Amino acid sequence: MISLSDVYGGYGGLDILSGFGIQVEKGSINCIVGPNGAGKSTVLKTLSGVLRPRRGSIVVDGIDLTGMSPTEIIRTGVVQVPQRHGLFATLTVRQNVMMGGYVDRRAAGRLRARYEELAGMFPLIAKRSAERAGSLSGGQRRIVEFARAMMLDPKVILLDEPTLGLDPQSRAVIHESTRAMNAMGTTILMVEQNVRFGLSLADRVTVMSAGAVVLEGTASEIADHPDLMGLFFGHAPEPRE
Ligand SMILES: Nc1ncnc2c1ncn2[C@@H]1O[C@H](COP(=O)(O)OP(=O)(O)OP(=O)(O)O)[C@@H](O)[C@H]1O
């Protein structure tokens, strides 16, 4: 279970998150949506330790992550796939995926076994393993990033706008791959601009605006909510208590 309570924080002393809170059940998919600049990416960066919250607490499976470094947080099993591509273009698909194991002190044999497991899970990894990552399409690169994040068998994966800039066909592959990671028991917390995509995948949806949660519910509750359109087009209700 991921639990963020009353989190305040942002960049250079300026709060972007103002009393943000969320509970994500173990094994579920939760999607955060909201207008541009609402602070969605800031939530993920705060959870992965890139940003330090000024106030509030971040607890995952009973472990308090507040104030831990990004590397310590990865070691607890919380791994982020950032919005901007982070692959090494001149390395092969396999080399990029294997890099996901670098913070681990596991024996090389175990990492190779994990790689084979992931190659079985993501057909693209098996098929294109020897190709340079720079030769792949945007959607294919995302899958490599997913596999790299899965190398450490994380309990939580944070996805920052996984469909950004992708065509419908690639979005469908991302949809399927996200479900596959979740089916392996990984809890997924994602941020999406594409509300339709988020709603189609998530068990629960969190709508945020101006650094706080304004709506929360199942995907169908949020899809049918009368305030949803207003939140995106400028008639936001007051943040809830
Ligand atoms: N590195 C940074 N330094 C200073 N301010 C930042 C930085 N990154 C983001 N911000 C500001 O924080 C606010 C929230 O940004 P954030 O990226 O979390 O929003 P978002 O909801 O993910 O929006 P988008 O969908 O546009 O990415 C914005 O006003 C943004 O300008």
TrEMBL record:
UniProt keyword annotation of ATP-binding present: yes
Keywords for the protein's UniProt record, in alphabetical order: Amino-acid transport, ATP-binding, Nucleotide-binding, Transport
GO MF annotation, one: ATP binding
Source domain of life: Bacteria
Domain ABC transporter: 2-235
PANTHER family to which the protein is assigned, alphabetical: HIGH-AFFINITY BRANCHED-CHAIN AMINO ACID TRANSPORT ATP-BINDING PROTEIN LIVF
Recorded family membership: Belongs to the ABC transporter superfamily.
Protein name as it appears in the record: ABC transporter ATP-binding protein
The species this protein was found in: Lysinimonas soli
